[in-house]
Each structure stands twice: as structure tokens, then as C-alpha cells.
UniProtKB/TrEMBL annotation:
Reactions catalysed, as given in the entry: GDP-alpha-D-mannose = GDP-4-dehydro-alpha-D-rhamnose + H2O
Keyword Lyase: yes
InterPro entries assigned: GDP_Man_deHydtase, NAD(P)-bd_dom, NAD(P)-bd_dom_sf
General function of this protein: Catalyzes the conversion of GDP-D-mannose to GDP-4-dehydro-6-deoxy-D-mannose.
A single BP term in Gene Ontology: 'de novo' GDP-L-fucose biosynthetic process
Keyword entries, A-Z: Lyase, NADP
Cofactor: NADP(+)
UniProt keyword Lyase, yes or no: yes
Organism lineage: Bacteria, Pseudomonadati, Pseudomonadota, Betaproteobacteria, Burkholderiales
Entry GO MF terms: GDP-mannose 4,6-dehydratase activity; NADP+ binding
Similarity comment: Belongs to the NAD(P)-dependent epimerase/dehydratase family. GDP-mannose 4,6-dehydratase subfamily.
This protein's name: GDP-mannose 4,6-dehydratase
Length: 336
């Protein structure tokens, strides 16, 4: 029988790539956004999947809203990808961040408990829950959480709610602890897209300067389509369990910037300025993941990282600029 998936937050980067993956696996896809009539569905358009998804409005802050969509769709699998997703923005909007993550996750868990039918739930956790892994090696599923941002605190609280409901009520619910995963679908407020966009603009004779904050931070950057495959694999296991998804390779923001500009034969130091206003109040210096459990139990590994990741991001940004000049929409399905 055809499986039915409900993707909560279908219009974001991960929701779009997950839709693409599940459609190719033969799923019937239902997707939600807070107000589907006003949602930005351009990412679904870029992957050519919008017309294949049944779209619904659902606000996880409102219990009745999520209960109604669960009853209407009767999903076999639920992917909770909806929330405020910017660490930097969480310092400016901590209350909204907490509500969009913690309250929303609790409402969803309660709705699942009430409707029955035993749908399987994937919850999106974050590497930000660990805080800095500097000096402590790569973070695995057993490392304690020490979050340093309202976003990280909120994700940690939601993570423990999922575990509590799994153990207390027998719900099949698991969390993917995802480290940074990038793609051409990232909004421009994310630093990776900002760097790649600026490098391409400079190479094409446009913008001449790029302002960045702490270049010494170290992250574990992967390719978003790899990570949604990991999400799906988690829900195919006999027993619900949490997994870290990461490349396992450290990459500083300085190295990322240098590599992005090098793809375009540019010396990044000629174009980048330090801006203290871009420093976070309480930054995570280093965060790198250990995907050993996922490698072994899910047969999952990150296939695109480092210079290969940068090549894809730069290629997509160039294509986006060229399409804009022609006043055309840009499809990025060819990048898979």
C-alpha cells in the first residue's frame, strides 16, 4: 500500500528536499505551513514538486489546528520540520523561538497521543543543543547538552519531550540531531548562502565587499539532500531511536569563505571585512558531529562535503543569477 507522509513545515529547505525524496519513493505527500495561502512555496517550485503535494494550513501553536490536520490526513509518517530556524534570530526573538519549537512539539505529541493510529514521528533536533564540542571530540548521541542560545535551549527541551513521550506512551517518535546542512534553498540570512552569493556577485562585477563576524568558528557542514534521506531511514527502523547526522569533518568559517571564493578564482581577503556587530552574544566556537551510529545502523553517510559541497553551492548560485537576468525561474533538480 502507498504510504502517506505529513511534512510539517513543507515550504522550508528540508521540507522541500524531503518531499522530493518521498515522492520518488512513491509516497502520498501532505504538507503544512502556518498559512498555506501566504507561504513562500518557491522551494517546492524549484524542485518541481509543488503540484504533487496536498497542502494544508496548520499552526502548531494551536492544538485544534494540528489535531484537525492529523485527522484529515491520517499519516503513516510525520516529519516535524517546522520552527524558527535561525540561531542568530533566536537572540532577538527568544519567546517566539521557544514557542515555535517547544510548545509546538508538545502540542504535536499530545495530538498524536489523542488520535491514535500509531503514526511514526520524526522530530528535527539540532547540533546547537551541544553547545561547543571544542576539546571534547565529536558529539555523539550520548554527549550531554550544553546549549548556548535560545534556539539551542528550545531544541534541547523539545528533544527531551520526544523521548519522554516515546518512553511514557509508547509512541514511535525519534529525533534526528542534525549538524549544519546546506543547499541552494537556504535563505539569504544564513551565512553560507550569504558568502556564496557575495562571492558570485563579486565575480560577476557586482557587489564589492562582504562583511562577516567571527571567522574562527568551526562547523560540520553537509549537503541537505543527504540529511533528509537520513530522516526517512530513521522512521524505517523497527525501534525508534535518536541519531546524529553529520559529516564528522570540521570546517571553519574562514576555510568555508576561502574555498567559496577560490571556486571563482578570487582571493577572499581582498573582499571580506570584519564586522563586530555580526558577533553573537554567546557563540558556539566549535561543533562537530560523530555519525558512527547512523553509519552502522541506518547505513547512512554524508556523501557531499568540503570542496564538493562548495562546488554545488557556487554552481547553483551562478545558475540563479543567470536565470534572474533572463527573468526565468530556476530549477535545481539537476544538482541531485
Amino acid at each position: 500500500m502507498t504510504k502517506r507522509a505529513l511534512i510539517i513545515g513543507v515550504s522550508g529547505q528540508d521540507g522541500a528536499y524531503l518531499s522530493h525524496l518521498l515522492l520518488h519513493k512513491g509516497y502520498e505527500i501532505h504538507g503544512t505551513s502556518r498559512d498555506i495561502e501566504r507561504a513562500d512555496l518557491s522551494r517546492l517550485d524549484q524542485l518541481g514538486v509543488r503540484d504533487s503535494i496536498r497542502l494544508h494550513s496548520a499552526n502548531l501553536i494551536e492544538y485544534r489546528s494540528i489535531l484537525e490536520v492529523l485527522r484529515a490526513t491520517e499519516p503513516d509518517e510525520i516529519y516535524n520540520l517546522s520552527a524558527q530556524s535561525s540561531v542568530a534570530l533566536s537572540f532577538e526573538q527568544p519567546i517566539e523561538t521557544l514557542n515555535s519549537i517547544v510548545t509546538a512539539t508538545l502540542q504535536l505529541l499530545e495530538a498524536i497521543r489523542l488520535v491514535g493510529g500509531k503514526p511514526r514521528l520524526y522530530n528535527s533536533s539540532s547540533s546547537e543543543m551541544y553547545g561547543s564540542t571544542e576539546g571534547g571530540g565529536r558529539a555523539n548521541e550520548d554527549m550531554p547538552f550544553r546549549p548556548r542560545s535560545p534556539y539551542g535551549v528550545s531544541k534541547a527541551a523539545a528533544h527531551w519531550l520526544v523521548e519522554s513521550y516515546r518512553k511514557s506512551y509508547g509512541i514511535y517518535a525519534c529525533s534526528g540531531i542534525l549538524f549544519n546542512h546546506e543547499s541552494p534553498l537556504r535563505p539569504e540570512r544564513f551565512v553560507t548562502r550569504k558568502i556564496v552569493r557575495s562571492a558570485v556577485d563579486i565575480a560577476r562585477g557586482g557587489k564589492r565587499r562582504l562583511r562577516l563576524g567571527n571567522l574562527d568558528v568551526v562547523r560540520d557542514w553537509g549537503w541537505a539532500p543527504d540529511y533528509v534521506d537520513g530522516m526517512w531511514r530513521m522512521l524505517q527502523q523497527d525501534t525508534a531511536r535518536d541519531f546524529v547526522l553529520a559529516t564528522g569533518e570540521p570546517f571553519s568559517l574562514r576555510e568555508f569563505t576561502e574555498a567559496a571564493f577560490a571556486q571563482l578564482d578570487l582571493d577572499w581577503e581582498r573582499y571580506v571585512d570584519f564586522d563586530s556587530q555580526l558577533l553573537r552574544p554567546y557563540d558556539v566556537q566549535c561543533t562537530v558531529g560523530d555519525p558512527s551510529r547512523a553509519n552502522t545502523e541506518l547505513r547512512w553517510c554524508a556523501t557531499t562535503k568540503g570542496s564538493q559541497l562548495l562546488r554545488k553551492l557556487v554552481k547553483a548560485e551562478i545558475a540563479r543569477c543567470e536565470a534572474a537576468e533572463r527573468n526565468e525561474g530556476q530549477s535545481i533538480e539537476s544538482l541531485f
